[in-house]
Specification:
single chain; about 350 residues; mainly alpha; 2 domains; four-stranded mixed β-sheet; binds zinc ion
C-alpha cells in the first residue's frame, strides 16, 4: 500500500473516531444541562435516574462503535469490555453536573454560598488532576522495562540531561496495539512506555522517545501544566461567575454552570493545547540534541504508523501535539543546522 493511501485511510479512521467522540460528548453535555436546569430538591434523584437511563445506553453504543472501528482499522486483539469501561470516563463530564445541582439545592438561593461551592469544586477538579488516578493504576499494572540495554541507555541519557527519573516502566498494551510513551509523576518522575512500542521500534528509536519523555521531566512540563491549569480555572471560573451573577443579574444557577463548564472547556480545549504543543516542541528539540534528530523523527513516524495516526493530522483531532509532519520538519531543520542549538531552549504532560 502506498504511503498516500495509508495516510488517507488513517485520516478516515481518525475522523470517524472523532465524530463518535464528539457526538457522545454532546449527548452527555446536553443531557447533563437539561438535568441541571430541571432538578430541584424534590426531584433530584428522579432526574439523576432519568439522565442515567439516557446516558448508559449512549455510552455503550459509542464505545461499541469505537471498538468496531479499532477492530477494522487497527486490528486490535482485545475484547469489548475494556472499551465499555473506558466510555465510563465520560462520567467526568456528568458528575460535576450532579454535584453542581446538589450544591445549588444546598445553597438555598444564597449567592455567596454558591460562589464558595464553585471554588471548592474547582479545587476538587485540580486535586483530581494532580493525583491522576490513571497514573496510579499504571504504576501498579506496569513493570520495570525488561530490556536492560534500554534501561542502561536511558540512564546514560538521564545523566547527560541532568534529570532524575525514579523508574522506567513498561505497560502491557500489546493487545490494544497502542505504541506510546508518557512522563508522569510530579515529585517522583516516571517514564512509561508501552510494550507495543518497545517491540516495534529499534532500541535506539525507543531511547530517542524515552529521551523526549525525560526532557518533559527535566523542564518540569507537568508541574508547569498544573500551575497553568490551576490559575486558568480559578481566574476564568471566578470571573465568569461574578460577571453573570453580579453584572448581568442572571442568578447563581447560571453563574455556577458557566463558572465550571466554561472555564473547564476554555482551559482544556483552547488554552492548554497551545501550551502543550509548545512543550512538545521543546521536548523534541532537547531530546534530539542529546540523541539524534533523524532518529527521533524516524521514531515519531513509526509510532504514527503503528497507531494509524495520520501524519498530517488536523489539530482538532489531536490538539495536545503538533502533527507528526510538523515535528519531522523542525527536527530536519535541526539536523541541517548540525545539532547547533542556541542556549535558552531549556525552560519549559504528557504523552509522546
Ligand atoms: Zn511529549
Amino acid at each position: 500500500m502506498s504511503e498516500d493511501s495509508k495516510e488517507e485511510i488513517d485520516a478516515l479512521f481518525w475522523m470517524r473516531r472523532w465524530i463518535i467522540g464528539t457526538v457522545t460528548a454532546l449527548v452527555v453535555l446536553v443531557s447533563s444541562l437539561i438535568f441541571y436546569f430541571s432538578s430541584t430538591w424534590t426531584n433530584f434523584l428522579l432526574e439523576t435516574l432519568e439522565e442515567a437511563t439516557i446516558l448508559v445506553p449512549s455510552l455503550l453504543i459509542s464505545s461499541y462503535l469505537t471498538y468496531t472501528l479499532d477492530l477494522k482499522y487497527r486490528k486490535v486483539k482485545t475484547g469489548y469490555s475494556g472499551y465499555a469501561r473506558n466510555s465510563l470516563s465520560y462520567l467526568y463530564i456528568v458528575i460535576p453536573f450532579w454535584v453542581m445541582s446538589a450544591a445549588i439545592i444546598l445553597s438555598f438561593g444564597r449567592t455567596y454560598l454558591t460562589f464558595l461551592y464553585l471554588d471548592i469544586m474547582l479545587a476538587v477538579i485540580l486535586t483530581g488532576l494532580a493525583v491522576n488516578i490513571r497514573v496510579q493504576i499504571w504504576k501498579r499494572s506496569s513493570k520495570e522495562i525488561s530490556n536492560s540495554r534500554i534501561i542502561e541507555g536511558a540512564k546514560r541519557i538521564a545523566e547527560k540531561m541532568g534529570v532524575e527519573i525514579t523508574g522506567f516502566r513498561e505497560v502491557n498494551w500489546s493487545r490494544a496495539k497502542i505504541a506510546n510513551a508518557f512522563q508522569a509523576g510530579l515529585r517522583h518522575r516516571y517514564v512509561f512506555v508501552t510494550n507495543f512500542m518497545i517491540d516495534n521500534l529499534t532500541e535506539d528509536e525507543d531511547l530517542a522517545i524515552i529521551a523526549h519523555e525525560m526532557a518533559h521531566a527535566k523542564m518540569n512540563h507537568l508541574t508547569k501544566t498544573m500551575v497553568f491549569v490551576g490559575i486558568d480555572l480559578l481566574l476564568i471560573g471566578n470571573a465568569l461567575f461574578a460577571f453573570i451573577v453580579f453584572t448581568l443579574n442572571y442568578g447563581a444557577k447560571l453563574g455556577l454552570v458557566f463558572g465550571i463548564a466554561a472555564s473547564v472547556f476554555v482551559t482544556a480545549y483552547i488554552l492548554l493545547p497551545i501550551l502543550q504543543r509548545r512543550f512538545e516542541r521543546e521536548a523534541d528539540l532537547v531530546a534530539a540534541t542529546l540523541t539524534n534528530p533523524r532518529l527521533l523523527a524516524d521514531s515519531l513516524l513509526k509510532i504514527s504508523r503503528l497507531n494509524h495516526t495520520p501524519i498530517n493530522i488536523h489539530w482538532q483531532w489531536n490538539p495536545s501535539h503538533p502533527s507528526t509532519s510538523e515535528r519531522i520538519a523542525y527536527l530536519k531543520e535541526l539536523e541541517n543546522r548540525g545539532k547547533d542549538i542556541p542556549d535558552g531552549i531549556g525552560g519549559r504532560s504528557t504523552r509522546t
